[in-house]
Q: What sequence folds into this?
């Protein structure tokens, strides 16, 4: 290795590798999102065998820093509930995880959530607070569940089982798949569809090992990596 290569900061090499990975893929192809590609704003993500991402904290929030389309998939092994429990802003204790879409900021984004306890269900909701942009401003306000045109139940999760959750969004249309079976189809509305932001992941009181993928965006995409704003979670 030359002296010049030794002098290149690790951060620059990391950003360059992200840009190369995106540039070599074709529009619509699935990009594998590594742990280093996430900005974790609350909680923590670990690394497990086989380069999978691990999750074992009561509360975790993260978004993807590289450009992607609004389509994401998580293939996960369910590890049961966490030992410690965190409460939602409403005071409820709920075991759930899911995909973030159009995560403009902590107060304005779309969720595709797989709820495990107290009831097994798939819920799509928008959090919308147009004049607020930090958790300190909006807290847990502005949530609205979106009714689907059609839906079907998600599988009951058992410890040790492997499943997939995928959300495919184009304009205001959203389709959600569990184990490649469509379980939710509908329109999220112009207000939610107009949000601009990355995809991501959220969890409350669940343990997972997972792989995360997102589709490469179509058209001309700015060659940049989003800044990581740690501590400003939703």
A:
């Amino acid at each position: 290795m030359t002296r010049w290569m030794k002098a290149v900061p690790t951060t620059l090499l990391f950003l360059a590798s992200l840009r190369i990975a995106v540039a070599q893929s074709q529009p619509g192809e699935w990009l594998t999102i590594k742990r280093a590609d996430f900005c974790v704003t609350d909680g923590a993500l670990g690394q497990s065998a086989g380069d999978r991402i691990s999750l074992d904290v009561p509360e975790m929030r993260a978004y993807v820093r590289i450009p992607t389309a609004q389509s994401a998939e998580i293939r996960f092994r369910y590890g049961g509930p966490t030992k410690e429990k965190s409460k939602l802003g409403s005071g409820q204790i709920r075991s759930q995880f899911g995909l973030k879409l159009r995560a403009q900021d902590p107060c304005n984004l779309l969720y595709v959530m797989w709820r495990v306890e107290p009831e097994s269900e798939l819920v799509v909701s928008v959090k919308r607070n147009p004049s607020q942009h930090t958790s300190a401003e909006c807290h847990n306000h502005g949530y609205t569940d979106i009714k689907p045109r059609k839906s079907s139940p998600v599988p009951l999760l058992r410890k040790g089982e492997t499943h997939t959750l995928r959300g495919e969004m184009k304009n205001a249309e959203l389709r959600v798949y569990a184990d490649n079976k469509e379980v939710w189809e509908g329109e999220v509305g112009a207000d939610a569809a107009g949000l601009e932001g990355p995809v991501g992941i959220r969890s409350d009181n669940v343990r997972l090992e997972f792989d995360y993928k997102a589709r490469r965006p179509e058209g001309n995409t700015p060659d940049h990596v989003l800044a990581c704003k740690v501590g400003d979670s939703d």
About this structure: Residues 1-8, 10-15 have pLDDT under 50 and may be disordered. The helical segments are 3-7, 10-24, 135-138, 190-193.
